[in-house]
Amino acid sequence: MAAWITRRGAILGGALLAAPAIARAQGARALRFGHVQPPEGEINRGILRAAELLRERSGGRLRIDNFPSSQLGGERDMLSQVSSGTLDLCITGPGVLGSWVRPLSILESPFLTSDFAQLQKMFEHPAVQAMRRQLAEQRSMRVLGPWYYGTRHLTTRDRPVRQPEDLKGLKIRVPEAPLFLDMMRTLGAAPTPMSLGEVYLSLQTGVIDGQENPLPTIAANKFMEVQKYVNLTGHILVPLVPVLSEQSWTALPPADRELLIAALAEGGALGGQLTRESEQRLRGEFEARGTSFIDSDRPAFQRALAPMFARYEEVWGRGVHAALQAL
């Protein structure tokens, strides 16, 4: 009997010791993060860093389950999932978010800025804060702090683009965002919206003549295997923004919200640092493989887009574009 009691005590003691671990496992919250970026890309590496930090700092209570390479759909598909609460997180550009709250597209407008620090300040401007609140209240999507994604340049297969008129008739892939469609139409090209995962095959088969993205994205997706020219238009300094489902945000205790925001900010800092390093080295690597770099006339492109800027004053709010540039 004494031996049985000893064994029973040992079992109960072990169970009590295991209980907190079991409770932690049962109480763990997984945040599903879908995006279109490739696994080896700088942005995905930033997301992995954020996931690592969140797991460590929450003691395993919170984790990010990462789904790169459009596994859960294109950007618009995933944003719809975030809005409905079936996906916790995705990352996209303000131009795409402009499909839901049109004024937000201003943060990805051409030639707005060439300084990421200034762009970060723009996200805290009262006009932009109001846009972010509108997205949360009307579409259940909460925009977090921006990540540096690079500076967008135009690539083409058969024709260098030095002046806006060189784009006439070319089919150029753009993200599925109204601002990008309007930009290419204003420049005389034929914009072709599609998800990033479809672009390589479309370039290879001639469905499209070119695309525009930062150099690290061009490299990660191997677009220069099927393109000849990088035209240095530098038309947009690109922020990507993590977008969190409002339902997911509400379900998190305040302390966990802070952990998530901090982890994503540090992941974004790493992604931005890696992106800048890639931009510095990629030109030499591309040229060594036969890519031609074209010095496009950036002021000419900016002048050509003046009619679009005038039209979008009604969308963005009168004077908001100038106020952001003045920061």
TrEMBL record:
Q: Which residues form the signal peptide?
A: 1-25
Which key words are in the record? Signal, Transport
Q: Which Pfam families does this one have?
A: DctP
Q: What's the main place this protein lives? A: other
Q: Could you tell me which InterPro entries the record lists for this protein?
A: DctP_fam (IPR018389), TRAP_DctP (IPR004682), TRAP_DctP_sf (IPR038404)
CDD domains found in the cross-reference section: PBP2_TRAP_Siap (cd13672)
Superkingdom: Bacteria
Where in or outside the cell is it found? Cell envelope
Family according to the record: Belongs to the bacterial solute-binding protein 7 family.
| PANTHER family documented for this protein | PTHR33376, SIALIC ACID-BINDING PERIPLASMIC PROTEIN SIAP
Protein's recorded name: Sialic acid TRAP transporter substrate-binding protein SiaP
